[in-house]
């Protein structure tokens, strides 16, 4: 299989500097932080201010290289497969969070609901597109 190389497009800045302080999931977090997009990617932010929520794909840079395919998530007493939970200990330490976009100033996105530690490399950002009950995308933004 071909080796994959990813280059961060930015970095998260927050007051959360210790892993123990990070909420275990974005859905329960009220923490705020700033995503700094690197200069060579700032043009890609055009129109992002129209979004209420964004999907942030990031690298678990503080995750150990050791992982198990079966783990116990913090919210359960039951052991589960790593692909059915959000553990940072995984074969490819990539995370995904949906965060509220509070403001945009130049290359800085001020966001809420972060579950990442200060210095987290940001790999990509995508618009959050919620689903209606019948699994059809809501047309709340012009894609």
Describe the structure.
There is one protein chain. With 143 residues, this protein is mainly β. The chain has a domain of 75 residues: YaeB-like (Elongation Factor Tu (Ef-tu), domain 3). Helices cover 0% and strands 31% of the residues. It has no helices and eight strands. A six-stranded antiparallel β-barrel has the order 1-2-7-6-3-8. It has a two-stranded antiparallel ribbon with strand order 4-5. It is globular and about 45 Å long. The termini are far apart. Belongs to the tRNA methyltransferase O family. GO terms for molecular function: methyltransferase activity. One of its GO terms (biological process) is methylation. This is tRNA (N6-threonylcarbamoyladenosine(37)-N6)-methyltransferase TrmO.
Question: Main traits of this protein?
Answer:
143 residues; mainly beta; 8 strands
- State the CATH topology of the domain at 10-62 and 93-114: Elongation Factor Tu (Ef-tu), domain 3
Seen as an oligomer or otherwise, the chain set is single chain
Per CATH, the class of the domain at 10-62 and 93-114 reads Mainly Beta
CATH architectural designation of the domain at 10-62 and 93-114: Beta Barrel
Flag low-confidence runs: none
- Determine the CATH superfamily of the domain at 10-62 and 93-114: YaeB-like
Distance between the termini: 33 Å
Structural class: mainly beta
Organism: Methanoliparum thermophilum
Family: Belongs to the tRNA methyltransferase O family.
Domain TsaA-like: 6-137
Pfam families: TrmO_N
């Amino acid at each position: 299989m071909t080796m994959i190389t990813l280059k961060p497009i930015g970095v998260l800045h927050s007051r959360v500097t210790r892993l123990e302080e990070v909420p275990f999931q974005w859905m329960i977090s009220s923490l705020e932080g700033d995503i700094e997009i690197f200069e060579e990617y700032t043009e890609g932010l055009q129109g992002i201010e129209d979004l209420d929520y964004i999907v942030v794909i990031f690298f678990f840079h503080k995750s150990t290289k050791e992982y198990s395919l079966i783990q116990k998530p913090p919210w359960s007493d039951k052991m589960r497969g790593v692909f059915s939970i959000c553990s940072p200990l995984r074969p490819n330490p990539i995370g995904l969070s949906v965060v509220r976009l509070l403001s945009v100033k130049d290359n800085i996105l001020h966001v809420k609901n972060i579950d990442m530690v200060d210095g987290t490399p940001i790999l990509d950002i995508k618009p959050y597109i919620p689903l209606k009950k019948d699994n059809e995308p809501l047309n709340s933004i012009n894609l």
